[in-house]
Every structure is written in C-alpha cells, then in structure tokens.
Amino acid sequence: MASDILPKDFEYFILVAEELNITKAAQRAFVSQQALSKYIKSLEKRYGTELFYRKPVFRLTPAGEILFERAKQLQQLTDTLSQELDCIKNGIDGQMNFGISYGRSFAVIPKVVRAMRTIYPSVKISIDLINTAQARQRILDGDMDIALGISPEPSSDLEMLEITTESIYLGISDRLLQIYFPNEYPDCIYAFRNGVNLHDFEHIPFCFNPTSIHIDNYVKSFLEKEKVNLSFMVTTDSNELNINLCDIVATFVLQFLIPNIKNYNEHSQDNPINIFPIPGLENCNTVTIMFRKDRKRTQYMDYFIEVLRKTVSENLYLFSSETSKHGSFLMPW
Fold it and tell me: If exposure means fewest CB atoms within 10 Å of the residue's CB, which of 2, 43, 170, 274 is most exposed?
C-alpha cells in the first residue's frame, strides 16, 4: 500500500465523500467532473481497492469509510500544525488565568507550561492554586478562564470536559503492618492487595486531611455507610504531609499522589508504604476541565486545554498486581 500520499491530496476525496455526488463535489472544488472522476480512480488504484460503490447508489465502501475518517483526521492535524507554526512565526500574544489544586499542580503544571512556552511563547499564564469549588465560582464570575477540578458541581453555564476517574486507596507502611498484624504479616500484604476491609483497621491510628474536600466527603460517607469506626489521631491540611507520616499512622491516598509514594519508597526501602485498594472507593473522583460555555476561547486556550487533557491522562496511575520488595504500589498505565 502506498504511503507517499500527502494530506492535501485527500481534499478532493473528502469533498466527494461529503457530497456523495461527483458533480456537486466538482463544483465545490472548482474542477471538472471528468478530472475529479479520474482522481478518484487513481486513488483507488493507488490503494488497490474500491472506495465508492457506483451502483445502485453512489456511496462509500467500507474501505472508503475508513479512508474518509482518517483523511479528516489528517486534514485536522495539518490545519493544527499550520496554525501552531504560524503562532511561533508571528509571535501571538495574550494572557489567561488557570486554576488547579496545590497537590495536583506539581505533576501537571511543569509539562503544560513547557508545551505552552514552545508553541505560544508570548502568552502569559497566571496560575492560581485553589480548590475545585473556588475555581468553579471564579470561572462563573468571569475571573478565571480554565480550571482543573475534581467532581465539580454541574452548571448550565459551564462546559465540563471529563478526563478520567480516579480512586482513593489506603496507605500504610510495612512497619505498621508488622506491629498491628503480627500474626498475618507478611502474608497480609498479598491478601490486602485484592482489597481491604476497613473494619480490620479500626485498631490502627490514622491521619486525615479534612481540607481535602473529596477525601473528606467520600471517605466519611463511606465510613458511615459501612459503620466503620477508624481512629483519626492526626489531622493535617496536606495530603503530601500525610504520606510522610505513613511510618507512624495510616492514611487515605488519592490516586494522583502515587508518584509521591513511589518516590518515598525509593528512599525508604527498609520501610516502604503499601497502597491497597478499598472496595467502594473506586473511581469516586471525576477529573474535569472546566470553562464557561459562553466565553470565546482563543486558539492558545484550546491548545492549553488539549495539552492539559493529555498531561492528566498520561499521569494517571492504576493499581498493579505486581509485587515489589519495596512495597505494594501503583504502576503507570
């Protein structure tokens, strides 16, 4: 199969596929009907298959439908590439305001800003570290352009681009498992990897971050529903700090913090943090990009949204059944 066709060569094919009429497509392309028919035949010869049924009705073949879909994708990529190169050449400027939580900013912001600086070096970006509810309100008030939120409250004025869902896990160190499960350790590690029953952890001290709205809401309602009575002995306003306290107390870990756990375990191989799934707290958070429906977005804002979506998707970590001598942890998708 030929691979030397340029995206521009598909423009006529897209017109014919859209019109399903050679005469109308020729008029749109400002070429003769004969020239367009000859072009379609040459395209079919190049790919070694018919792209259109001629009778009883002129329509796409299965091969033609595939080529139509891919041709539109190539056309869009070509247009986007041209726009991005023009932006670099012409130095398009502007400014935008973006909201994101403190904890998520470290994994997301550097990659997004790096991409923006490459394509739109003259665009100024103001970043505010705020929670989802605050970001949602500021977008509604017109004080913020885009935000990354977690399970935001719906609004008819907001566009909600859902990227993915994430779970809440139990984090506990090897040392705590040895202390509180002396007869079951280390076999309990393998058992807990299939999911923990929090009733089994009621005798263990926990730390908790009540300022993390989604941990607070989901975990507390879950504990109440399951009638679990955990001992919250330490409260903080930092999920990152809670990870560093896992040598002393157990904690709840949001999925996006898994890279922090892995980094911690690399430096604490004698007492790693284990991450265990909690049945009932899977996929409880929806990671969402928010912006106003009625607010005109610039080209660089659309690019920012796409880079943000890709960055968040690539940084999602899922639970793995693999074991490690450095503890049970989540591995990248």
Answer: 2
Residue 80's identity, in one-letter code, is T
pTM for this model (two decimals): 0.65
DSSP 8-state assignment for residue 312: H
Please name every residue paired with 187 in a beta bridge, in sequence order, or none if there are none.
Answer: none
Q: How far apart are CA 44 and CA 64, in angstroms?
A: 9
Task: Give the least confident one: 38-47, 91-100, 159-168, 233-242.
Answer: 91-100
If we measure between CA atoms, which residue out of 1, 13, 5, 26 comes closest to residue 52?
A: 13
**What pLDDT does residue 290 have?**
97
Q: Are 13 and 68 in contact (CB under 8 A)?
A: yes
Residues in contact with 16: Cβ distance below 8 Å, sequence separation at least 6, in sequence order: 22, 25, 36, 40, 52
Q: Decide: residue 60, CB within 10 A, 0-12 exposed, 13-18 middle, 19+ buried.
A: middle
Helix (H, G, I), strand (E, B) or coil at 4: coil
Q: Provide the 8-state DSSP code for 250.
A: B
